[in-house]
Amino acid sequence: GFERDMEVIRRVTRAEVGVYRSVRQFRTAMMTSDDGSDDDIDDEGTLSIRKKIGISNLKADNDYILWNRATSVHPHMMLGYPLSNDGAILKRYSSESMASLDELRARAERGILLEQHQQHRSGGGKRNITELPGDLPFSVLEMRDKFVKKNEVYKAMKKFGLLGSSAPLPSAPIKVGFVASGFNTKAVLYLSHDMFRFFDPDIVEIHIFSTGQPDHPHFIEGTMRGVDWRQRVMDNVDYFHDVQEYRGDHIGLARYIHDLQIHILIEWDGYARQGERAGGLMALRPAPIQILHQEFLMTSGAQYIDYIITDKNVSPLHLEGLYTEKFLWLPNHFFSKGHAMQKELYPPQLEYKPKAGKGSEFELGVGSPQENACLSSNPLGRDMDDEQVSFVYCNFNKFLKHNPETVRSWIRILEQVPNSILCLLENPVEGIPNLRKFVTEASSGGDDSADLNDRIHFLPWENNPFDHQRRSYSLCNAMLDSYPYNGHTTAQDALYAGVPLITRSDGDDMSSRVSTSANIVLGLEEMNAYRGIEEYETIAIRLGTDKDWFASIRTKLIETCQQKNPMHPYWDVPRYVNNFQNGLKAIWDNFLAGNEIGHVEVKEEGEQGTMEIQIVAREEKRQIAKDGREQNTTRGNEHGDEL
Fold first, then answer.
1. What angle do CA 226, 228, 234 make, to 5 degrees?
2. Residue ranges of the alpha helices (H) in 260-375?
3. Using CA atoms, how far apart are residues 137 and 154, in angstroms rounded to an integer?
4. For residues 19 and 557, what is the distance between their CA atoms, to the nearest angstrom?
5. Reduced to 3 states, what is the DSSP secondary structure of residue 441?
């Protein structure tokens, strides 16, 4: 069954690593001296090798990795696989193989597109993988030298009075680019679009590079009830570049970004959204500093990605061998979430609004999870005149995050908590018969397990993300997290609904540690099962049977959501952005100084919590800066001939 498949994947991947992966030294590969030996390669030769594979000259002068073929399993699928023993390092290897061949794959796909175009026009064509232009990848060293020289010229001009003393350096503000296909109604934008309201224009200048399409107006007006996250981003950032024309043309997009002299480029797709993401782009080094953030929660495996944004709970130092990037550690929690800033979402309340009466129609925000019973008219599979639902466990992740070990643990939890039910999402609905069959086969066969399937229910998909989030409040007492691929967006939805999140904390995978870090910051570390699946079940069973303990946990969580002046650090987006941009500034200053790339930890000093009055002030500062820039642009266009 599944366990056998996982073992096959583990063995095959391990074998592929041995055959396809090689580690070479900078001075002994790719270049040789005139006599054919490889003993006399100088520093210039090393730099040439670094440039050819996009590695920063500020990275440690150690070995580099080559692959001649990608592993059979895609890295995004690897996120959800509970591989035993060396599973975490095998996931890194899967990403490595993808990264090593990503640019070549992009050129090959580009060749296929051109071939199809030629066949359409002339009825024939020849498949062709074009050669990479000689100036690509762009040189990190050349980019750094250019920025440093510009700064030196400006400093000299200031010294001799040719510029005002307050004139900013050409490298300030820092030009920060975000590139993604998901600048539309995608989870990453749901979580992160509020970030762009609070960047300090004196520190960073924000550029968006959107390769994806906007949502259809009918979807925005109907399903989203007029809310357009893409438009909100456009209203708040300095420059929004709609680069759909470069979709499938990573070389053209790299030149476009490089010509804008972007200092730091942040990648939001990773290996998600295959077919939509800007494959091959980052390998061409359009920016001197390149960072992975948010969407793909694992190492990129790429030597041309310098940093990954994380925190010390998710990526402690002793796990650095699972990553090819250096860490940019943020305080509190690395994961962006804007729930407390969105007017369409409401902080949870301790008391549920009473239902009109038994059997009344379901209404968001009305009735307790026990009363709403996952919208089932017969949640226990028998007459409810004498028995009521005692506790509602939920998991709203896609089925691909489920695995036999986790579902077996849910079965044992239900068996130990009488009259409890499990509420899942129909995602996909075609998988429900298979899951029900598994439950029947995996149940212990006791008296209480005979009707266990009757206590498992499925909700239809809710297209509106705000209604979907509010269902957590109305339908869930506690969320049973997935492992090793945690709920990420669904977890934030549950937490902001006041629903405690029980998670396993015994894994090394980045994707398995997001909820662990969340609970620590929220002061709910007792929800973390550090000793594995047995403790996970123990916590869940106690939560479902100890009413006082559950009430104290729920109250503590809800208080974090309601906290104002200052906001709780977990939900405080302006505070998050402040730490985020301070981290970028530290990285950029280190780059200009010519120092080697290393881990960076952002530390807060003193009370950093955001007050409501500060939210308004920061938004106003950003808007004033944007309005002034637009006026200058308009004035420049009007007098372009004179200039």
1. 140
2. 369-372
3. 28
4. 50
5. helix
Q: What tokens appear for 63 in the block? A: 């070995």
User: What's the rounded Cα separation, in Å, for the pair 527 and 540?
Assistant: 9
Whole-angstrom CA distances from 365 to 70, 354, 362, 538 are: 48, 9, 9, 29
Of the candidates 379, 452, 387, the residue with the CA atom closest to the CA atom of residue 413: 452
3-state SS record for 532-548 = CHHHHHHHHHHHHHCHH
CA-based nearest residue to 239, from 574, 625, 587, 580: 625
DSSP 302-331: -TT--EEEE-TTTS-GGGGGG-SSEEEEPS
Task: Select from 325, 304, 326 the least CA-distant residue to 53.
Answer: 304
Q: What is the largest CA-CA distance in the chain?
A: 92
DSSP symbol at 215: P
CA distance linking residue 246 with residue 281, whole number of Å: 11
CB 496 within 8 A of CB 461: no
Six-digit token pair at 457? 């229910």
Is this structure's pTM higher than 0.85?
yes
The token pair at 407 is: 């579902």
Give the model confidence (pLDDT) of 412-461 as tens digits: 999 999 999 999 999 899 999 999 999 999 886 654 555 799 999 999 99
